[in-house]
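Suppose you are handed a protein chain with no further information: no name, no annotation, nothing but its sequence. What can you learn? This example shows the usual starting point.
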Amino acid sequence: FSQEFAPTSIAAAEIQSMFLDSFLSDPVWLHRYARNAKGEPIPVELLREMKTESLRFGARGLRRGMVVPFAEKAIYELKENELTPERVLQVVRETEHRLLGGDSAMPTLAIPHPWERDTSAYYHSYILAELAVYQTRRFFMRKFGSIVDNPRLGRELTKFYWAPGNSLTFLEYVTNLTGENFSADAAVSELTHPISAAGRDVEEALELEARTPHPAEPVNLNVNLIMEHGGQVITDNMNGKSFEQMAEEYAQWLQKQTEAKRLGK
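A reasonable first move is to predict its three-dimensional structure. Written in structure tokens, the prediction is:
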């Protein structure tokens, strides 16, 4: 059982979703699965550009996320007689300047989490989870040499991240899987990787993708799955529909939504 309230750790919940999110920027996954309507793969040059941009702005993106918890901390540390709109704005701006060197492109107080009772003072969990994703990916690459379409990952994730449920803390999750104490070392290593190496990184990723076997059998999640948009059922597998069929139906539905939005419908 899991939820976004105690005793569930937000960081533990987020590491699972953010680890899956990380596939969407993995050159191996992108080259294999990011295809246009003609079935053509994403251009290699675009992969190089994406890798370059991730190295150029990755550290700033992480620091941008850190602004929120540090700003919240500064606000909560104010004395009661200091809690004025002007003083709150001042400490938030000071935090932005300290971590980003200037005003944030998106004002920190435009982020809804600090305003809500249920989500205030937990934004740091996203940062912890992001650091843990770097550590998790590094562990898998060292142990298995690949991540995309590697069935061994599922067994590891099931044993160490999913099966324990709320019986462990976030730090225990990470330590039990990776065999190392939680740290920012993997993130620092990746975020300080030379931008000049982006091209070589992509070439190595393409070589890895070429060596990685495609799934030999259809995906079987062993669950009853319904994808809904409000009251509309987009697709489901109640009648034996395969995961691949569901994915295709969802892709078609999403394409229609995108086209309708483009036409202003």
